[in-house]
Amino acid sequence: MQLQTDLLQEARRQAEICNACRYCEGYCSVFPALHAERAFSDGALTQLANLCHNCRGCFYACQYTAPHEFDLNLPQALANVRQESWEDLAFPRAAGKAFQKNGVLIAVAAVLGFALLFWAARASGSQGGEGFYAVLSHNAMVAIFLPAFLFPLVSIGVSLRRYWRRVEAGPFSAAHLVVAVKQAAHMKDLKGGHGDGCNFEDEDRFSHARRLAHQAVMYGFLPCFAATSVATLMHYALAMPAPYGLLSLPKLLGVSGGLLLVLGCAGMIRLKLRSDRALGARGAFGGEIAFVGLLGVVGFSGLVLFALGQTAAMPLLLALHLGAVLAFFLLMPFTKMAHGFYRLAALAVNARN
């Protein structure tokens, strides 16, 4: 299944004009890659679209935007191709398209549905365990979440393989991946060509707010994931099962990561609500808000559970938190969370070239 021809044709038209103009050459990673092309294949446009961080600086600097007859809007053209590529490359494809069209409804239904299942299972979960395990046994949690963790890995792996074939990229080295990881970690392309930030939130005003919000989400999610990994290691390798104390490594990582995650998600939603939707992918706003909201609910419900974990509300809060976490993992390949993997792949391809 190929991307919509009209979206590719419009992106190709605009890329050819930008290639002739070259005013925005130093703005971000997109323009050096764009200017290296002589003709823009579907794969080349997909690669350019996934390099683009939608900072919108090129739009406000462009002399060929409407009402000029060229009517350039490169951020939207690339966003449309990028969005369609995520849907087309998703595994399974139907799930990717469904989430983008009904993201909020699917996210809410998944969280509440899984929470109800966990709430119903609590009667059979108590087997003399302590803390959360008094509600749902450790073995039951592993049986539920291990497949839920493996599924997105397989799905995203298939999607990245499809992407690599689409953009016709050859083998790459560890050095290329290191360059890509460094650029992603520093959010290099969200700093703008001159380091003043991007123009996402308020027309041509430069701001680092979007980069900081992205970094808060990324550096909040990683400690949360590390908290689970450390707790797993402590349980199986060190024979130190939960619950863990306030100053334990899993708790310190989880609480600090959760706070950053909630702050970052709140910041991203605020910026999206203030942004000009005409410069983003058409029809993608609901799916983007659903993803950020779901990720924020995971962090917030975890913090509330930590704060009220010794009260009578704990079983209900645990069911809601586990429902949010399970929904997040199962929906991950079809939400904008997948864009991090595609961007990393695009940066690796760019480093290789």
How does this model look, in words?
Helix 3 crosses helix 5 (74-89) and helix 8 packs across helix 13. The protein is built from 13 helices and no strands. The longest helix has 33 residues, at 93-125. It is an all-alpha fold and 353 residues long. It folds into two domains: 5-87, no CATH class; 92-352, no CATH class. Keywords: Membrane, Transmembrane, Transmembrane helix.
The low-confidence runs, each spanning 5 or more residues with pLDDT under 50, are none
* Rg result: 22 Å
**Pattern of helices and strands:** HHHHHHHHHHHHH
Taken together, the total number of domains comes to 2
Q: Whole-number average pLDDT?
A: 90
Characterize the main sheet: none
Helix content: 55-70%
Q: How widely separated are the two ends? A: 26 Å
Q: What is the tally of beta strands?
A: 0
Total of DSSP H or I helical runs spanning 4+ residues: 13
Q: Find the structural class using helix and strand composition.
A: mainly alpha
